[in-house]
Amino acid sequence: MNEITKITLQDHNDVLEKIAETLDIPESMLEKAIRSYQSMGNWFGRPESTLAQFDPMVSPQGSILLGTVIRPITDKDEFDVDLVCTLNATKRDFTQKSLKSAVGLEVELYAQSQNMKNPPEDGRRCWTMIYANGAQFHMDILPALPDPERYRKVLESRGFTDLAKNAAVTDKAIAITDKTSANYAEYSNDWPQSNPAGYAEWFRERMRVRLHEQKTLYAKRHAFAGSVDDVPDHKVKTPLQRAIQLLKRHRDIMFDDDEDKPISIIITTLSAHSYNNEDTIPAALASILTTMASHIEERDGVSWIANPVNPAENFADKWAEEPQRRLNFFAWLEQAQKDFGMYLNASAFDEIPQVLEEGLGTDLVKRSIGTSVAASAGAVSAPSIITSSDRAEAAINQVHEAGTQSRPWAK
Prior knowledge:
17 helices, alpha+beta, two-stranded parallel ribbon, globular, disordered C terminus, single chain, 7-stranded mixed sheet
């Protein structure tokens, strides 16, 4: 039997890095998911495709694109691969309904060509591809059309002039299908809009320094022949991405299958706002957990977490109608402050407090650091983090008095 290689842990960052690495989707599974959506894109663009004339492009969105995806809590669960299928067409060519049907036809033909047992499911916005047992992922394919001009006009009409001029964001806007739209079956210019690629661009900018740093290290270690910027994003992780992975897992353990748990886009957005390109996971968590709530605005008595690439969209829009969601978010935030704070404030970095171990999943933590050994040297001090909700409230009030910090379009 080969001896298991043990990695020496030097500080809090090493421990959290090991735990976060265990949250990663296995490289083989991620590569399989990437090959699957590339295969689907090739199918849509083949000469015989009914969509070929529209140059269909299949691209990832969501946590796969952002590099914040985490493996399911159990091996029986699946993770989502969120995709966009964008046709080079206009709203004169399709209604929402006909676009959904056109993409759906090719999704069904692709499923048949792959001998899939489960037919694709027709959802409110997406087509869902169910893979065979063992794949551990399913794909949601969102039909879309390019929509940069209308996106810019909408931003301008709502007073976000500077953002409307930012081509890096607006050029990637899309119009999407939604069965609940009043004009779903009619030719209309008024389609629901989205901008996942623009959001990803904003997210990358929030961690630009560390992303470049990590890609540079990767290129040196692996003798990467191309430019550093050509290193695939999914090959590296920044402290921001690692912190978000840990926070999402803490959320999942705390709420299990509760539909009212804090949603990932809120955790991701507030974390990115709070991140200041810290170079370690402990420093990133300290910054995020102490300032996250300060990036929640109050607009006419409504809690508002603005989409950074469309500030008129409120990611917390359901909080008003379903107040339990707001209560759950702040309950989770307070618990995360306590759990991570207990560890980050401890001098013994190699001893995980039981409360944090349980908060992340005991099996996960033991599996992560079970093959590692702590250094014999003294622990490196970790950044301080608040553990008192009273102190957190005081900090939030100070930010509110000084003015909102959550206006990325004004920066």
